[in-house]
Amino acid sequence: MGADFRAVRNGMLAALHLIFPPRCIGCGGAVTDDFGLCAACWRETDFISGLVCDKCGVPLPGKNEGRAELCDECLTIARPWDRGRAAILYRDTGRRLVLALKHGDRLDLVPPLGAWLARAAEPILLPDMLVAPVPLHRWRLLKRRYNQAALLSGALARAAGLDHCPDLLARPRPTPSQEGRGREARFANMADAIQVARRRQGQIMGRPVLIVDDVMTSGATLAAAADACLAAGAASVSVAVLARVAKEG
Ligand SMILES: [Zn+2]
Ligand SMILES: [Zn+2]
User: What residues does the ion ligand 2 have nearby, CB within 5 Å?
Assistant: First the structure.
């Protein structure tokens, strides 16, 4: 029966692919399976693997020997969360995909990017973890119509079989964009900008939380979100981002 079902399903997929051939999510070129990248886009996407910083997920030189290592930034900047992972570096195709999801209405990117994120976050997931996105202020949400972080956190939670709470965190006041600010200004801009929504306070008490965002630059936004979760009684906080901005070096 299973084999029959698979044969029928494969036949249907084959027929569907004649009508809608699978496309590369990076460039739209033809690829052989769904949700994939063509060879050229694959080469231009920096998937993070090997030894990484245990707080921010940036790749580190050396071999992964199972010890938690930290990058220079995470040794010097306060990171109120326990552990963190990132799926890709924010450059080339990775940067284009993040921008397409954020500003380009490319909701078709959510399943593949969510799968990449879930795979990267796997080593830091805990049983009973509550998954929540970095929030947008409601004015920005109205303008953009969706929170790309919430789409990613939903995909990750589904893939990992964890509870998703898209409105766990709130941004009660609009904060000016972080773009074009230095690190100090980014942290000052985000201080106290994120809170646990009052109606969600009972849910977070005593639970491990995973905060999800699309990009991590200075970590100021994630720090504000982590502080809010810990203040509301979360047992622990970790973070997962699709893309990490890394200094070229
Ligand atoms: Zn491509
Ligand atoms: Zn780090």
Answer: 53, 55-56, 71, 74
